[in-house]
Write a structure and sequence with these properties.
The protein has 2 domains: about 5-75 and about 95-170 and about 275-350, FAD/NAD(P)-binding domain; about 170-275 and about 355-370, 2-Layer Sandwich (D-Amino Acid Oxidase, Chain A, domain 2). About 35% of the residues lie in helices and about 30% in strands. It has helices at about 15-25, 50-60, 65-70, 105-115, 185-190, 225-235, 235-245, 255-260, 290-295, 300-320, 325-350, 355-370; strands at about 5-10, 30-35, 45-50, 75-80, 85-90, 100, 120, 125-130, 135-140, 140-145, 150, 170-180, 195-200, 205-210, 215-225, 265-270, 285. The strands form 4 sheets. The chain has a 7-stranded mixed β-sheet with strand order 5-4-13-14-15-12-16, sandwiched between helices. Strand 9 (about 135-140) and strand 10 (about 140-145) form a beta hairpin. The mean pLDDT is about 95.
Amino acid sequence: MATQRIAIIGGGPGGLMLARLLQRQGKCPVVLERDRHAEERPQGGSLDMHSETGQYAMERAGLREAFMAAARPEDQGDRLYNAEGELLFDRNEPTDDRPEIDRSVLRQILLNSLTPGTVLWGRRITRIAPEKGGFVVGGDGWSEQFDAVVGADGAWSVVRPLLSDALPLYEGVTLVELGFDVSRHPRVSKLTGNGKMLAVGDNRALITQRNGDGHIRGYAGVRLAESMAKEWGSWSGENVRQALRDVFAGWAPELQDVIETGDFIGVRPLYALPIEHSWKNQAGLTLLGDAAHLMSPFSGEGVNLALADAVELADALASTDDWSSISRYERTMCARATVAAEGAAQGLRSVFSSSGVEHVLEHYRARVHA
């Protein structure tokens, strides 16, 4: 394909992976990232990288060695508790092929792999318009011309409205994000084990997940009206904590300890795009990752899908075919994402239900015997 100067909007793992793959093909991608630097915002917790998607992408990018050096195969365990603190499921098998890696570490591996100057930081985009057979992308005091534009800019993509009228819809569940240092929170570390802990009861859930460098990320999840979720987002950390005390009253003390001791990070309402989201192909524009198929994290597929999208989109852009190769990429990507989105929606409904713990236990046991 003749397309050479490609704007990738968004510097998350999917956008950076696409840039890496395109550079290996001799193309000239530019990543436009609204953050002023890589450390401006927390990058989230730990990611499990699947062999057929995330790990395959790292292999294709020539980054498998760097990934394996940073990955944590020892942290693939799962624990399940009920609200009374009874341990119902405990499995830790380091040979499972879904090693963990911190999102921030994965992002840094990808950043380090790019030609210096590939990522332009502090580029908040206010305009994307067709011009001279391509697109002008601009913001406050700057604009640049590109042959093609890829939206890898997440839930509230500025590229998506050029292709689709779809908007993310609130899923009815909000997570409160918490942070723990193992050295200061030995009880939460013991509760978590090697990997992830999930405690479920009557439309509520507590999650802790071991990260690298002695950290644990935690989440308290509850069904809330969207208006209330927005209100919580305006509260202080201590006010949110008091609300969580009320929500989780009666839970086992060791589980309530997660709420009491965690460092408050933020309120995260969960949004998702329609499950079968797709759009009419338009030359010079496309999407990947959450910009194309935002879903809840309860399928464990998010970053893996984004990396798989990047591999297939890079191959399509390298094709000698015309933009129809991108149309084929979009059909394949949307079909794959539909399956994952259905699983994510079902997972969310199962956990946040009156009988959530039974559903999760059944799922865990089925996965072991699959």
